[in-house]
Design a protein that fits this description.
Strand content: under 5%
Number of helices: 3
Shape: flat
Structural class: mainly alpha
Keywords: Membrane, Transmembrane, Transmembrane helix
Distance between the termini: 85 Å
Pfam families: DUF4190
InterPro entries: DUF4190
């Protein structure tokens, strides 16, 4: 068996040249290089000294000393839960559990909100929208389910009638 010849080496059995790290030219090869112009240096100027305010300038108020991280908690702010219509809350809760009850309570809540001026109109509308969407989804699902069952029964009855003797 013979030793392979590399195109770089003219004689058989000679070791291939060692590879140089990336970015350095291989020995014996000339790479074009371009000299970059020197970077311009920014003029070195001393930082301006701190100037004191003029005599006529207004003096700032004395700052309060730091009292530590323990400051009293702010007083709790009251919620508007007592002013929100109860039927509106029931509408949005029942929209996920029983959509028909959510529809009923949503309409009752909207009529009470219109009469009394309670807050919660957005909650009642959200409950109504979710309830109607769930109701429509359930109605379409039931129609498709019943149709699928009737289709299977029809195919079974049709195939059973062809095997009569």
């Amino acid at each position: 068996m013979s030793t392979p010849q590399h195109p770089e080496s003219g004689t058989p059995g000679q070791q291939p040249p060692a590879y140089a790290p990336a970015g350095t030219p291989a020995p014996g090869s000339a790479q074009p290089t371009v000299q970059l112009p020197p970077m311009p240096q920014a003029p070195q100027q001393p930082a301006p000294a701190y100037q004191t305010p003029a005599q006529g300038a207004p003096a700032y108020a004395q700052q309060q000393p730091y009292r530590g991280a323990q400051s009293p908690a702010p007083a709790p702010v009251g919620t508007t839960l007592d002013k929100t219509n109860t039927f509106a809350f029931l509408s949005i809760i029942l929209a996920f559990i029983a959509p028909i009850a959510g529809i009923v309570f949503g309409h009752m809540g909207l009529s009470q909100i219109k009469r009394t001026g309670d807050s919660g109109r957005g909650i009642a509308l959200t409950g109504l929208i979710i309830s109607y969407a769930w109701f429509a989804f359930l109605a379409v699902f039931i129609v498709l389910y019943v149709g699928f069952i009737l289709m299977i029964v029809g195919f079974a009855a049709d195939s059973a009638s062809s095997y009569m003797y």
